[in-house]
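debug: dumping io for the single-chain case to check the tokenizer round-trip. Nothing else runs in this session.
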Amino acid sequence: MSYVPLLMVQQISPEDMQNFDVMETKIVAIAVYANKAGVPITVATRRLFDGDKQFYFPTEVTEGAAKTRIVYHHTLAQWRELLESLTLPSAPDALKQLMIPMFLYLKEKYPAVFAGIEHDQSFDPSQYAEVLPAQ
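debug: decoded output
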């Protein structure tokens, strides 16, 4: 893998977190690739599109991008289940490239929810997608 995608992750305000059940709170993450040819097939086949809520893309982040975006829209409980399998050594590298940094980000934000999950420590951190918290 010679490219590193951008992984934009929706921020949940502390005020909003008080109004929701933490495990049922939905977190949106959007992977942005530099060009259409750069999207690995293992990632492209796991697309999930949900038009319920708009997600703001800053122009300065996506300018020049080929508009290749893959949207993940899950509750924290669903993220936990997904990340338990997609951060293991047996997961495809293209998915680990997105899911390990997502796991590390969510583990920092919600340590109690993501405690006990192991990830592939041998996967090269220089290949991690760049996480960009977004509103």
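debug: round-trip ok. The radius of gyration is 14 Å.
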